[in-house]
Amino acid sequence: MNVSRRNNFDFLRLMAALMVIHGHGWNMTGGVGPGLWGVPFARVGLDVFFSISGYLVTGSWERTPRLGPFLAKRALRIFPGLAACVLATIVIVGPLTTTLPIAEYLQRNETWRYLLNIALRLQLFLPGVFVDLPEPRAVNGSLWSLAPEFMCYLTVPLIAVAAWRRPIARCWALASLAVAIGGTGLYMFEGAGAPDPSIYGIALKYALVEVPFFFVGGALALLAPRVAGLWRADLCLLFFTLNYVISSWFDWWNLPFEWLTLPYMVICFGRMSLPVVRGAGRFGDISYGMYLYAFPMQQLILTLWPGLAFPVLTCVVLTACVAYLSWHMVEYPAMRGLRRARATAILMPATPK
User: What is the CA radius of gyration of the chain?
Assistant: First the structure.
């Protein structure tokens, strides 16, 4: 897969983060916001993130099909930024907003259980924090998606090995898994008397209906160098329109159609290189930081400045500043350290025995 680094993916990730912030902003103020194809903006933004991840992470494995470097890159992209966000939430947001005395806040087990978020074990609450808001006590509801996304990362080398690295076999495997996993999630949502289990603190049905976006993105990464004329603007326009038609006529049947069409539209646009748009990452890839910090930042703003005229806009500006710091002080240095370590290992002569 040969995609120029000067593409639109940074812009798309920023737009996805803004959609999540916009969608959550309505929920946090007790309202019901607009959506796309009958789907709330926050969920569409998450769908875009999963689609891009499937495409780029599968492409990363294709370029370097070695398990150690692959897992190291994935871990360093997720965990350093997450750890910094969780710690900042405990030591800054918590003491600023808790209704408890600080000493009692620090002594509560619930405070330190929040650290389990670093291990992707969802913990939504801190003692006495955000208790009087429309989304009461929820500190960072966005963190639930990180565990299923990281599990999707792990499937990439597993499927490559199971399918003997044959791209077409892997595409069929990805399609079969997308149908099976997504169908199970739909049954949990729509089936009468269907079970509603939680695993690792996460409602399983929400995770299952996101996984197909990752797998379809991965399948498109495998097909891209092998199918001439795969990316077509007219197909994107057709898919965009059909999503409206199907969502109007068939309600939840739009979701299976979206599993196929949204990744295609997102990746088709992401592979382009449009002036101005392609420079969205010139100051760093802040989209992950915005996703991590936006939820607690929105709750913090509603707590400290309840009468603020434009809370979502204020959240975007403040979150972008924090995400910029996160990228340049935590996320990028961690990844750069891995590259330096690998370069040193390559250049260092073998130790004589």
Answer: 21
Domain membership flag for residue 53: yes
Q: What are φ and ψ of residue 34, in 5° steps?
A: -75, 170
Q: Would you say residue 351 lies in a domain?
A: no
> Could you count the other beta carbons within 10 Å of the beta carbon of residue 110?
13
Q: What is the pLDDT of residues 47-92, one digit of tens each?
A: 999 999 999 999 999 999 999 999 999 999 999 999 999 999 999 9
CA distance 127 to 108: 7
What is the C-alpha separation between 343 and 336, in angstroms, rounded?
Answer: 11
CA distance 227 to 280: 29
Tell whether pTM > 0.90.
Answer: yes
3-state DSSP of the chain: CCCCCCCCHHHHHHHHHHHHHHHHHHHHCCCCCCEECCEEHHHHHHHHHHHHHHHHHHHHHHHCCCHHHHHHHHHHHHHHHHHHHHHHHHHHHHHHHCCCCHHHHHHCHHHHHHHHHHHCCCCCCCCCCCCCCCCCCCCCHHHHHHHHHHHHHHHHHHHHHHCCCCHHHHHHHHHHHHHHHHHHHHHHHHCCCCCCCEECCEEHHHHHCCHHHHHHHHHHHHHCCCCCCCCCHHHHHHHHHHHHHHHHHHHHHHHHHHHHHHHHHHHHHHCCCCCCHHHCCCCCCCHHHHHHHHHHHHHHHHHHCCCCCCHHHHHHHHHHHHHHHHHHHHHHHHHHHHHHHHHHHHHCCCCCC
Number of domains in the chain: 1
Tell me which residue range forms the domain holding 134.
9-342
pLDDT tens for each residue of 212-237: 999 999 999 999 988 888 999 999 99
Task: Report the alpha-carbon distance of residue 188 to residue 127 in Å, rounded.
Answer: 32
Residue 348 counted as domain residue: no
